[in-house]
Amino acid sequence: MYRGRGGYNNNRGGRGGYNNYNNNNPASNLQRANDYVNQNMITVEIQGWDNASQQDLVNFISRKARIVVSNTSVDQSGKLLLGQVRTMRDAQDLTKFSGARFAGQTLFIRIVDNFGLNNNSNFNSNSGSSSSSSNGAKDTIELLKNFLLSCYNPQIKMLDLQNVQNNQILINNGLFSNANTTSKFFPALLKVAQKEKLEIESINLSNNNLDDYTKWLNELALNFPNIKNIALSNNNFKKIDVFDRLKNKFSSLRELIIQGNPLSQDINSMQKLISIFPRLSILDGTPVRDEEKLNNILTFPINSKSMFFENDDLSKAATTFLTSYLNFWDNNRMNLISLYTQQSQFSYQCDSSVIGDYNGNTASNLWNNYTSHSRNLKRVSNEKSRMLRLFIGPEQILNTFNCLPKSKHFLDIKPENYAIETVSFPVMSGMMITIHGDFEEVGQADHQFADITTPNNNNNNKGHSYNRYKNNTHNNNNKKGVLEKRCFDRVFIVVPGANGAFIVASDMLCVKSYSSKKSWNEKGIKNADENQTNTTTNTATNAITNTNPNLINNIPNNNASLQTLPPDIASKLNPVQQELVLKVMQETRLKLEFVLMLCEQSNWDYNTAGQNFINSKSQIPSDAYI
Amino acid sequence: MNGFQIAGQSQPNGFQNRDNSATVENYLTKLLESLDEPISNQQAIMKILPQLHQNPRIIINGNPFGSREQFQQLWARLPLSNHQITSCDVHFIPTNNTNNPSDGQYIVSAHLKVRFDESGKNKIGETASFNNTTTSSTRNIWSHWFGVSLSLVADSTIISNSNTEAISIWDYRFTENPISSVFKVN
């Protein structure tokens, strides 16, 4: 074991040093250290070297590539040199040295370590070329596969690997001919088991002379972390440390057999074993935990249900609202403006923390599209900064929407990726809708947030909101963030407006790192009381999948009145003017007569109308709005 | 429509601009601390989220709960937990009470991470071990982190007194599961 200060040859017996084992014998320590290194060496094959001696080549590589090649041997043809390097990284670095000129030839170097079993082993020693080496690897894999299947019992999903080092077939094929091949046998066997997709719940590794330095258990944890039963009887485990290093691995281990090892004589170590493996219920045949009680304690008692609606009315209202809302959010956010009044609030928070599975994207600009105006209170502590990130009223909110990346939700196609809760909000006769799920960013925003810290000198822009955004074309494209798949939570407080239309009083969006492991969508989730709530859930799911996402009238009922002009007014306007009036009316929510006044004063220019509206907003009477 | 002002209606002068977010943030921290406290006796169970209304809307993982007491009994039988807020936000919606302009509702949306003790005992000390000395002496073994989305609605009284029964909606949902964990959320 390599731990503590002092290194392998430290003869002073310091804490935790290698000398703590084997009675402080330096020669033994050195031997063990060398064994460790030898067991993990990687074999490489070098061609194009034979104009010089082996030693010249080794010296050349050491000098030029700073990599030591040892244990060199030459095949019968005298053209192929096999050597070993200490680590896979060294081996990979060495392959990059292919193409270097040496003694009038060009070197060709490749890694030939296929599970480490086709090199330096008896069955492969007569290979005279790389092709025969490759054949040797195939033979070895076939040998392992046959051996594996002979040890596997599919009925009880058990792999019986007792006393494998005395298996005559394996010995005859040279799998235990030296330390290198011996050490690589078990990892190779597990890789073949994975390739064969063997389901292994139990493994018997008894009588294999395994000791505190074995790597077999680590390899097992890496390849089969969910194994439930392990037998290790009659090996040579002496210290608890080897198991201590397995903490947080084998999270499903329920039975362990350790008898016949020196360790099993130590009561304290045996008790520690129980705490190392939290699901362990049986140790050496003796129950140590109440398995049923343990399952109750270690399982959250409430199974996830993806949908909850307080009643059927809310189910219909919420699914209609969400389906339409997300459709517009994805396709034309302008259409959402009528949902927001002057008192509506919107803010978003981005949370870059990674919980659960890691998606691997570490791009520095991963969150650039969100960070500047994110109102994550854990990140924004200044009161003024917090207020600047709270968007109030339809203009500010819509402008913010247009500064967020274009997106695509899949609520109708993959409703299983979404969870929704809806409860009534009696204080305002409304409802609170919470939705969780994921979306894909499909394009950069049309507009980009202005630097929130940069003062805007345009005196014409008195409106607070307009100072906070600028057209995308004026911005530095380097600030754009990566388009990604992300998860989100969103909370709406929806209240009834005029004519029963929906009004969003509060809208909070939390954008998070993508996680494919959604708690409500875990495989195998079977709710015991599914029948009780299936009706509501199914109704909701059906509603989502069956709702026409273009049902604009389902959102604000008064929106219909905004789509056409009275005939007497329309007759006095040309088509362009009619279109402008409708557009301004939708965006400002002013009554028609005020919109007409605004458009006339703005010479029927859209931008001027918007500017004039902002400039005079404070003087517009409240009854001028719809 | 009851209470919410639509466009053009005036609202209490400047109230919406008053920022109580720091107070609400501290309040949220306090709520989570009450979820994470070890429980030494039966009385301590009542200290789990005492800020809930007597009959609030409690939704856990998409399941409704009947009462605060029911929720407290459930939570007491979980292993020790440890919550951390990774992100949160708050909105205030006034209820337009002319006598009290600060009257209203705080809407909190938070993303949390939570882990649970996997040593085999729950908050009230029940253990599955046949040998109590084995686990009672062990330290907590924390699970990997789970992600949780929390949305809640609280009365504006929390600004002046964080101990009142102010929470009318408590929606707690696990949203992210670790790749492997001894503690399971199904």
From TrEMBL, chain A:
Residues 317-511 form the NTF2 domain. It comes from the Eukaryota. One of its GO terms (molecular function) is RNA binding. Residues 468-478 have a biased composition (Low complexity). It holds the Pfam family NXF_NTF2. It is found in: Nucleus. One of its GO terms (biological process) is poly(A)+ mRNA export from nucleus. Gene3D superfamilies: 3.10.450.50, DNA helicase RuvA subunit, C-terminal domain, Ribonuclease Inhibitor. GO terms for cellular component: nucleus. Residues 1-17 have a biased composition (Gly residues). Keywords: Leucine-rich repeat, mRNA transport, Nucleus, Repeat, Transport. Residues 575-626 form the TAP-C domain. The keyword Repeat applies. InterPro entries: LRR_dom_sf, Mex67_RRM, NTF2-like_dom_sf, NTF2_dom, Nuclear_transport_factor_2_euk, NXF1/2/3/5-like_LRR, NXF_fam, TAP_C_dom. Residues 1-31, 452-478 are annotated as: Disordered. Belongs to the NXF family. This is Nuclear mRNA export, poly(A)+RNA binding protein. It comes from Pichia californica. The gene is MEX67.
From TrEMBL, chain B:
This is mRNA transport regulator MTR2. InterPro entries: NTF2-like_dom_sf, Nucl_pore_RNA_shuttling_Mtr2. Residues 7-20 have a biased composition (Polar residues). Pfam families: Mtr2. Residues 1-20 are annotated as: Disordered.
